[in-house]
Amino acid sequence: KIQSIVEELPNFMAGFLVQFPHKKRKFETEPPEIIAFGDTIVFSWEMKPEELSDYLPDVGFFLTFLIISGLENKMAFRGAISVGDYIQNKSTVLGPAITDVAAWYDSAELIGVLATPYCGQFLSSINETQALSSMEFLKYSVPLKGGVSKDFWVAGWPEQLTFILPKAKTPIQTYHNLIQNFSIPKGVEDKFF
């Protein structure tokens, strides 16, 4: 199932980016790499520091698509996003950006993707100049393991349920319809509600 979601993402991205010719060119000439192994998806997209403000917000929307597609396929994704240096060779990805993600990917007690504090600095800076929309990233008090909550930038998937799933009535009704067939083991219920 993960592989089919990964295979859908480039088509979704291309459809979204058709509205933005300069962004579509980068997608066509320097596409992101998306790999899946086990229960892990790695989305990497090489870009120059000066390109972050143009493309990082869009990545939030693409992550939202992944999360919602996962829910449609009875998979509850959680993870993290960062920016920085990395090297990639097929399914091997190493570097400071990966270390940053590895430190945060399973810290949240929720379904979704949070921006690491390092990445959050970039998102806050971008937000100062071009006001991020909830389609991209939004600030949220994320419940963390250990019973504490902290403000993080997160992919705004709940607000996009009715956009990505046009038959949806309201985001909360759609979410409950998506998770009603999930098996929710004891001890992880906080991630779902």
Structure write-up:
- This protein is α+β, with helices and mostly antiparallel strands and 193 residues long.
- It is built from seven helices and eight strands; from the N terminus they run H-H-E-E-H-E-E-E-H-E-H-E-E-H-H.
- Helices cover 45% and strands 20% of the residues.
- The radius of gyration is 16 Å and the shape is globular.
- The strands form four sheets. A two-stranded antiparallel sheet has the order 1-2. Strands 3-6 form a two-stranded parallel ribbon. Strands 4-5 form a two-stranded antiparallel sheet.
- A hairpin with a 2-residue loop joins strand 1 (33-37) and strand 2 (40-44).
- It has helices spanning 2-17, 21-29, 52-72, 96-104, 117-130, 157-164, 171-179, and strands at residues 33-37, 40-44, 78-81, 87-89, 92-94, 112-115, 137-143, 149-155.
- The longest helix has 21 residues, at 52-72.
What percentage of residues falls in helices of 4 or more residues? 40-55%
Spatial strand sequence of the major β-sheet? 1-2
Gyration radius, to the nearest Å?
16 Å
Tell me, rounded to a whole number, the average pLDDT.
88
| End-to-end distance | 24 Å
Strand content bin:
15-25%
Largest sheet: number of strands, sense, barrel closure = 2 strands, antiparallel
List the helices and strands and how they pair.
Elements: H1 2-17, H2 21-29, E1 33-37, E2 40-44, H3 52-72, E3 78-81, E4 87-89, E5 92-94, H4 96-104, E6 112-115, H5 117-130, E7 137-143, E8 149-155, H6 157-164, H7 171-179
Parallel strand pairs: 3-6
Antiparallel strand pairs: 1-2, 4-5, 7-8
